[in-house]
Amino acid sequence: MRKIILLMHVSLDGFVTGPNGEMDWVIHTEEEQNYVTDLLNTVDTVLFGRVTYQMMESFWPTVHAHPVWSKSKYHAEHAGWIEKTEKIVFSKTLEKVDWNNSRLVKEHIPEEIAKMKQQSGKNIVMIASTSIAQTFMQLGLIDEYRINVNPVVVGGGKPLFKNIKDRIDLKLVETKTFSSGVVELVYGVKRGEV
């Protein structure tokens, strides 16, 4: 069965953005980029909320024509990967999605995810998309949390864990410390374990 993996950058105090929505504190050295690339090679579907989808759609298709980003091996490879990867967008307000290999889901999220997890293929990753991630947490749909803790305290902003009503028991699967000071924590969700 395919897994739903949440990949998220957070500050040490648990925020995914700063007080004004800024994310300039997220560290993306080559070491972190290579680690993310290795993860993305194990997935063939990416999940987005509306805001993240629109941000990604406005950037990644332009990379190959951009005078700076097109020279970056990481950006060029990631642009190619995301272009061919299936993209599922969860939104009640969007009417359509136009980016290549994109599909819109407006309702029945648990049923849609259950069908996707039963299909053949690689794992499924949710990148950023805090609001939909929180919905998935509340519905118990995330199987693995990959949290990259950045060595910064931002003092406020959008928290990763918000309005979680039920306890989520986790098992530490892996940790990795990058030379930048970022620590990746990988937790699997315990389901029915004592």
Automatic annotation (TrEMBL):
Residues in Bacterial bifunctional deaminase-reductase C-terminal domain copies: 2-183
Pfam families: RibD_C
GO biological process, one term: riboflavin biosynthetic process
Annotated InterPro entries: DHFR-like_dom_sf, RibDG_C, Riboflavin_Biosynth_HTPR
Any one GO molecular function term: 5-amino-6-(5-phosphoribosylamino)uracil reductase activity
Name by which UniProt lists this protein: Dihydrofolate reductase
